Amino acid sequence: MAKTIAVANQKGGVGKTTTVLNLGAALATAGKKTLLIDLDPQSSLTTGMKIDPATLKTGSFTLLRTGEVTLLENGKLAVIPTSIDLAGLNLELASRVDTNGALKDGLEQFQDRFDLILVDCPPSLDKLTINALMAANYVIIPCQPQPMAVRGLQLFMETYRQVKRANKGLELLAIMPTMYNATRTSEKKVLEGMQETFKDLCLEPLPYRAEYVTASGEYRPVGNGQVAYWQKLAALVVAKIGL
């Protein structure tokens, strides 16, 4: 049975898509069958995988509506992309009752095909994010070690606790400090606070100005700067989940 990880934070620009792309590539390289899902109408994951959203006939927008979708696969890595059509579906979900389980229902068909499913969530606490958290076994929260970002983290944690009442199997897998600038005293202090609050759940920070490795059209991590970071994170995820 696949384990689903939502990569979520209500704040934009904290590294959610970067995390899904690179962690997914590292997991696939390690031999884990991994499915990536773009649940953000901005389609950053989709374009990051060299897919044109305008050409899509199916995607996460059809998965949530009817359960129908065509996977784009290459080796151990597959993706369910999306387009701006997802924004309209989000409004549709918000106007109906009992729609928080739409993604979970849609993912049932993939449970025996993959080891891990990574969901790239939108930068908001809308129906799409709630669907991701309801479908997930785990959540990873990327967060910049800055005061405003940490305030957003605190608000997201409240949402996490509320969703956990309905999805009792949901677990916080990691807090991931991103874009960390060690030369800034303020960021050092914020990082120390995050480490004190979340203990072992707070990961090693991903440095600011480091080269964010993206997935190429061949679904392989490229670049020189951060491959080891993502490989280490992939190994940590596999160990924590017990795959």
Tag the structure with descriptive keywords.
alpha/beta, globular, Rossmann fold
Description:
By secondary structure, the chain is an alpha/beta fold. The protein has one domain (3-241): Rossmann fold, CATH 3.40.50. 41% of the residues lie in helices and 14% in strands. The protein has nine helices and seven strands; from the N terminus they run βαβααββααβαβαβαα. α1 (16-29) packs across α9 (227-241). The protein is globular and about 50 Å long. The N and C termini lie close together (10 Å).
Q: Give the count of helical stretches.
A: 9
Based on secondary structure, the structural category is: alpha/beta
Major sheet summary line = 7 strands, mixed
| Rg calc | 17 Å
Oligomer: single chain
The structural domain count equals: 1
How much β-strand is present in the residues? Answer: 5-15%
Gap from first CA to last CA: 10 Å
- The average pLDDT is 89
Looking at CATH, the homologous superfamily is P-loop containing nucleotide triphosphate hydrolases
Please provide the ordered H/E string of secondary-structure elements. EHEHHEEHHEHEHEHH
- CATH-derived architecture: 3-Layer(aba) Sandwich
Helix content: 40-55%
CATH class (first level) name: Alpha Beta
Counting DSSP E segments of at least 2 residues, the number of strands comes to 7
Low-confidence stretches: 210-224
